[in-house]
Amino acid sequence: MAENFARRHRVPKWYTNAESLVNDPDVEAVYIATPPSTHKEYTILAANAGKPVYVEKPMALTFQECNEMISVCRTQNVPLFVAYYRRALPKFIKIKELIEHGKIGTPRIVNCMLFREIESCYTNPHDLPWLVKPEISGGGLFC
Asked: How far, in Å, CA of 43 to CA of 47, rounded?
């Protein structure tokens, strides 16, 4: 499948396993956008190869896994970044500004409620997407 995709899109290199990709000397950094259940494994693999790591959120399944990832990256002297880019979006910067300048008082609690129709992919308990399987996702769509 990877080869087929690469050929159709004129991608000169493709890989069928993470080790080959991470150990390629032309790869300068690794972006991990797999399900969270694999973040620790791939972060450690990349760090041990001396590659900077940018990992999607959630960083890992548990606090312990996060600490292990941080520790290995520190030991290997490679940077570890987590994709918490939303804090730099204009609406979040504005909220931060309002709070810092006391424009909305002192926040004591934040409560967010999101409502929408359930998608059909979430209705069959025997065939759920990985996003809502805690052992893979770390907790679900909004965790």
From this structure: 6
Give which of 46, 123, 43, 50 is closest to 82, Cα–Cα.
43
The count of other CB atoms within 10 Å of the CB of residue 78 is 19
Model confidence, pTM? 0.79
Sequence-separated (6 or more) residues with CB below 8 Å from residue 65: 39, 40, 59
Please give the distance of CA 79 from its chain centroid, rounded to a whole number. Answer: 15
Cα–Cα distance measured from residue 49 to residue 141, given in angstroms and rounded to the nearest whole number:
31
Classified as helix, coil or strand, 30 is: strand
What does the pLDDT look like over 13-62, one tens digit per residue? 999 999 999 999 999 999 999 999 999 999 999 999 999 999 999 999 99
Return the structure tokens found at 40: 């620790």
